[in-house]
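Lab meeting minutes (informal)
Scribe: AK
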Amino acid sequence: MPGEESLNWRRAPADMQRVISLKRYLDNDNSKQLAEALKACHDLLGVMGECGYQACPHLGEDLQTRLVRLQRRLDEDSGAAELRPAESEAEKALRSWGERAADYYRLKAAEVRDLMLVLAQAAESVGDRDQHYTQEFTSLTERLQAIGDLEDLTRIRGALTSNVLELRKCVEQMTEDNDNAVKRLNNELAVYRSRLAETERIASVDALTGLANRRRVELALDQCVARARPFSVLIFDINDFKRINDQLGHLLGDDLLRQFAAELRLALRSSDFAGRWGGDEFIVVLDGGPEQAEIQRSRIRDWVVGEYTLRGGTDSYRVTVSTAIGMAGWIRGEEITETLKRADAAMYRDKQESKNGVAAVRG
């Protein structure tokens, strides 16, 4: 009937609208769930990095660097396809950190055990020597007491002379033994002091670049504040560094970080201090106020920024590197965290204004 056809025709759009609305709701709900899952993974990676650093500061910085890279990937490529590779890389990073941390603490435990054995042997040696000389003096005392029973003055004099000579010899031997024991103990302790100092040095160095790690830089900044002399901070970030890792792989990306760190070290004065702040970020602590720091920043930019050659097997690649640099001079009485915030903000402004990132890779 015409009326029914007209009725059906009018109903169809409403039904279709309901279907479309339901589909849009489901799509929006899935997108929201995906965004929440990506944010949860992003936050979890940060927590894992912090916990790893707290559990083993010597190795935690490398773990944090690898997890920060994963965080950035989740920020930039927020697709579901990124979750599985991120999970795999996070697992590799955690397993590698766990194995290295276990080896590190086994080594530390072995050093402490060896040191305790040296001290125990020294104590045992002292005890044995004291017991030996206790017996010597007991015997000497008995002989001296026996002299009291002698009536002949000549025999008394001879016995005393003999025993006095023996007593002198015994005392001299004790002195020599004590000196030798102290020397041996000092030599052993010097070896372990050297080993502990080397362990502390390794714990303050970034394993990849050889620069100071973040923990060491933070200590240096605290020392600068305590001295209350003018100093400035530069924070560097290699522009578009992710492209190197994506196109050439992390091994050549690490090679670029090593070369960049070496050039940065050469560009500094003896009074300046450089470290790896994390990932592809570096930090320099400069002696002097903002005017001197500006001169050094220009010198570093001219020296460090430019073309690098990366080699992977038989292939070589040339990349042109630029950096975003943020600078801040410490203000007397200011918390160092505020100085770092100002330098970090200046670095991000420089990054936004910069048009030149890492140039296209050339073979």
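Next up, CB showed the second protein from the same session:
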Amino acid sequence: MKISARSKMIKHVYQLHVQLLYVEPRIWRRLWVPDNLTLAGLDQVIQTAMGWSNSHLHEFEIDGQRYGMSLDEYPIEKPAKLDKDHRLSDVLGKNVKTFIYTYDFGDDWRHVVTFEQILKPDPELNTWSQCIEGQNACPPEDVGGVSGYMDFVETVLDPTHEEHKAMRKWFGGPFDPQSFDVNAVNIALREVED
């Protein structure tokens, strides 16, 4: 097997646990990501692993610093640093054990990302981003945040609910809140490039 130049640059592989906050049952993914991944790249990995469509803004809050996309049209007092300019190896440091990833500022999906361990890079095993396990389906986009999602699940799982047909039509068919396919996620992750 030929070892890519990118694989040679990897010093560590981080194992991260990503959990969507405030939703029961828990929705989470365990990821392996190379240390040379940018935060913009990590956004793509989390989006793909969780099942989001990356159609809204996002932001990381790591060790008191915000990282995100350029928002020139939304001037704020302390803008976020550009996530595309910062690599995981530069921002995680020795003291960072958890950080927050927020997606869709309207629905306000907050994820706690826990740094679990450092792995030795092996070009045949783990030098690309991958999901090694997870649980439960991601909420649909634009469902209305945590409370909207809980109402949606109750409605789509109850065929006698007066809004059942309308919600199934809005979603595009049946929804199984317990579904998760790690193989499908990893196939999709192979398409994600930093």
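CB comment: Residues 138-177 form one domain.
No objections, moving on.
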